[in-house]
Specification:
Number of helices of chain B: 6
Distance between the termini of chain A: 79 Å
Number of strands of chain A: 12
Order of helices and strands of chain B: EEEEEEHHEEHEHEHEEEH
Radius of gyration of chain A: 29 Å
Largest sheet of chain B: 8 strands, mixed
Oligomer: heterodimer
Structural class of chain B: alpha+beta
Shape of chain A: extended
Distance between the termini of chain B: 92 Å
Chain lengths: 325, 314
Amino acid sequence: MNETQIAEFNCTRCESPLESGDLRCAICGQAALNDQTVQRKKLAIQILRCTGCGAAITYDPKHQAPACSFCGDVVKVESIDDPMEQTEHYLPFTVTADEARAALRGWLDSRGWFRPSDLSASAQLTQLKPLWWVAWVFDAEAFVSWAADSNEGSGRSDWAPHSGQNNIQFDDILVSASRGLSLNEAAAISPGMNLATKRKTPEGADRDATLERFDVQRSQARQEVSAAIHRIATQRAQQHFIPGTRFRNVKVAIVLRRLVTRRMSLPAYVLAYRYKDQLYRVVICGQDIRLMVGTSPKSLIKMIAVALVVAAIGMLFLLILAAGS
Amino acid sequence: MATDLANSTSDQLEISCQSCGARLVLEAHLRSTLCPYCASPSIVSRPPSPNRPSPTFLVGFVVDHEHATKTVKNWVAGSHIFARSDFKAAVPELTRGVYLPAYLYVAVANTRYSASIGENYTETETYTTTDSKGKTVTRTRTVTKTEWRPLSGNHCCYVLDVLVSASQGVTNAALEAVEPFDLRALRRYADSFISGWLAEEPSRTQDDCFRLAHDETIAKVGAMLKNFMPGDSHSNLEYQTDLSHEVIDLVLLPIWTYAVRYAEDRPPIQILVNGQTGRVAGKVPVSAAKVTFAVVGVLLLIGILFLLFLAAQG
């Protein structure tokens, strides 16, 4: 989809942009038709005829379109538009492959006391792949009604009910659509993306970079974005609006306005390294070397040693207690 | 083309078939017809009025005649055990595939609610009982109790896709029974979609339909509120809903209508088939004899069990 197809016009009610082929606003249900129908002033009777053979045409459920009952010609109708999602913008790689490699070494060294002592020296980098992963980025204004139980004001029960309404402004919220990255990986590297650097084409990586594609249609994408808005609104209500420190049964109802969704491809390096015949994976943000997430081995000997020490301290404590009594 | 109008009254319209010239009488509530002599489909476009606006949307037929008939036959034969046997054996007669006028209503619902919210807690209590040896003993048990707290607040949401029948021939409850329609397949109305099919004009006033839509919307909000309440349980839920930003659009929905004539002395049963999904619904006539037999059978069984119980006691 190109940019001219997006934001052709906004819904007159909730001011969310309508997209090519939308007959109704996906957010508030307002009809979004260009007034193409001529309002009849007089009664008119008509027979619709096939342009090929002149016979009358009738709607055919098999073709889900009007068809000529004589020559079988199917009349072209406005198709129901539910296109596959497509990237509109790419963020460029600003981290080079060498920097990513070096960052991996640093990361392996900082894996804490439980890491094997030879981890950094023995780990073999087997793959370093630049990847443009796909995500939706949205802005919206939400009027959120919430109700929940929290510990604030509780009496005999641990919980007390609360309710309220607040406005939430969503700016540049990123929702992963990636199949290549897990939700955790995408969430960990997302804060490093500078959306102001968006480009029309992929830039800053080798030719062998993987370009992930959206694999959902527009209607499903809208559902996923809507679910994400619901999830984030629930989190924000807990963080900012509901009194108390512990929560349960957090329910939100949302009236959205001005929902603008952009489809982006975001840069990341996916690295695989081998340590003692086991493969581990690390993902590095393509725009911020500090943001990386992955798995690393733990030293079994160190873990056993710690367990033994803890057990010994425990035993000692019990012995002291026994001696005291 | 505003020609070929022979005569029109407020109830009926007399037109000439543009194919063979035959004179046809078209009922006032129809938007399209087929010439009985040459099968040419005619579409009537009337000037819109407040109670008869031009359709905005349409859902096209997906289920064809053959499939709909098969589905109805299966549905009639497989109706519940208390259905009349002559109904189960009856052959459904097709009336027609018809585009039914309905209003698609959306609104913003602003609701003020109040309720008592039940928050559970557990307490340990002592009680006395007799043990297996017949001695009175005191024991403890954990019981769950509920603390009721008042809650009031506001709930604001969009209510989308409320459909109400605009046809006098199909009640709103009958339409609801064959819903849902997949509104992702909604199309912009065009005459070519109804060509060769019966299409009805709205026969209910827009005010009536608005009222039906309001009622349905408020019921929907009530269902949402039940889910919205926190706590382990709730009671005394009361709410007052204001609807704003209302939009109502006329949509034509594909419906196959069947009549099942199962007895000479009974009116036929109307069965509707959703022309998009194939969902069937209708009112199944209950056999009084079967219900009586069932009740008598259950009573007899209870009597026998009671007698057996008495015999065992004796």
